Each structure stands twice: as structure tokens, then as C-alpha cells.
Request: fold
Amino acid sequence: MDHERARVLVLAAHPDDAEYHAGGLLAAHASRGADVRIISVTDGSAGHHRRHPRELAVLRRDEAREAGRVLGAEYVTWDFPDAALFPTLELRRRMIREMRAFRPDLILTHRTCDYHPDHRAVGQSVQDASYLVTVPLVAPDAPHVDTAPVVAHMCDLFTRPYPFRPRVVFDVEPCLDVIVRMLACHRSQVFEFLPYNQGNERVPESEDDRIAWLAAWYRRMIRPRADHFRAALVARYGEAGNRVEHIEAYEISEYAAPLADDELDRLFPDPASSPGGVPRIRVEKGPQ
Ligand SMILES: [Zn+2]
Reply:
């Protein structure tokens, strides 16, 4: 890990998981010129109430690519079928080859006790790959790496079998605009399936109103995180931590490289400490 710019790889289950759980950290990295690569392991083909799965998979690949452009990151969708993922040998080897090709300093993924079976399968496969990536005779066609990357779990609030233990928490308020712009690219989700799935909420007609509606929805959805990890926020920000409302939190995997204290700021840059206070992401255009 001797190069200056961090290399960050997200291995998440679905197109939109990365921005929902880690958009602030990814924005902070992108604003510092890091190489950010986002992978949705499944094709997202189960996330709708009326579109055909094949049509949906194509649409979601395009939506993800567009979301990646907001950050200047590559956003790739693999073709494992949505809502049918298992931590197979095939998936583990695919991840090992991906890690060896991209050589990330930091991998972000789900925990193995998350609610969604696809999230669990991805978390398990990353865990299984994160030591074997150093073993030459595993997937020998891809040259092995000498050291495992740091693996961090994106936060969830589940408690069984054990609650999330954050090593890093930070305020994502300066990044909310970027996160919402990324989320808005996933139109089939945020403006179609999620409103349907969450009780037929009405989505406003005009684009500006839709973005405002999405921003309010996103704030509401992640708001419980701040209270959940309040003690950690106060430890980080002092008394001001009591007033923080929208956060991200990361737990470091025990099964990959440990996070050294002197690597903490490089791998987890605080969005608020970006130059000018706000990550300078160039948003080329809003969603159509
Ligand atoms: Zn998901």
C-alpha cells in the first residue's frame, strides 16, 4: 500500500447497494482522485413489479453505469441472477480474479448476517476470497497478490448473531447531494420499484420534485444510523457529534488485512475534510 491514491473496490449484491450504504465514502475518495470500482454481483433482475427480468437486467446495467459516471467511477454489473445468489466456488474464484486484477487497498462489502440472502452470499464470498487471494495455487491463471487488502463492511443495524461494531463513523451531510444524484440514476428502483414495494408511495411528476422527494426519502431511510452509533459519533466529533444526523459506518473484517492507524485517513477520508469542505465531484448532467 505504498501508492498515494487509494484503490477502492466495492463488491455489493445489487446495483444501488454501493451508493445507499457507502456513497459518502466513495464520493470522498472520488474527490481525492482515488480509483473507485463498483461491482454489483447480481444483475438486479428481480427488483421490479412489472418489467420483464431480462429487460430489467439490461436497464439496470445502464443505470449503474450512469451512476458510476457521477463519481467518475467504473460501475460494473455481473450477471449472477438477482435473488438467487449462493456463495459458490464459481463466485469465490471470480472475486479472487477481480481482486488480483484491480489490486484494491480497500474492499467494501456486506456483512455475512445481513437481511438479504444475496448480501449474505456476497459478504461470505468476499470473506472466503480475502485470504485465498494471496495463495498462488488458487485460481493460478491470475497472478496472486502478496498481501490481502483491508476489507470493510458497510453498516447495517441487524443484531443477530452480533451487532455491527464500527471502526469508522462519519458525517455524510456534505455528500448527500452526490449520493442522491447517484441514486437517482437507478430510476427503475427509486422511482418505480421502491415506491411500489414500500406501500405505493406517489412519486412527484417533475424532475426537480422527484430529486427533492428522493433526497427526503434517503435522509429518512438512513437517519436511524446516527442514533444507533451516537456514542461513536461523539467520540469522533466531540459534543458536535450529538447533532450529526446522516452518517456512514464501517466495520473492519477480522479475516482480511488489519487497518493500521496510519492508513485510517487515507482509506476512510472524512467527507467534511475534503478541500473546501465539500467533495468536488463534477456532476456532468442530471438523470434524464
Ligand atoms: Zn441489495
Summary: Residues 13-14, 17, 116, 119 surround zinc ion (CB under 6 Å). The two ends are 39 Å apart (CA to CA). Residues 7-272 form a domain with the Rossmann fold fold (CATH 3.40.50.10320).
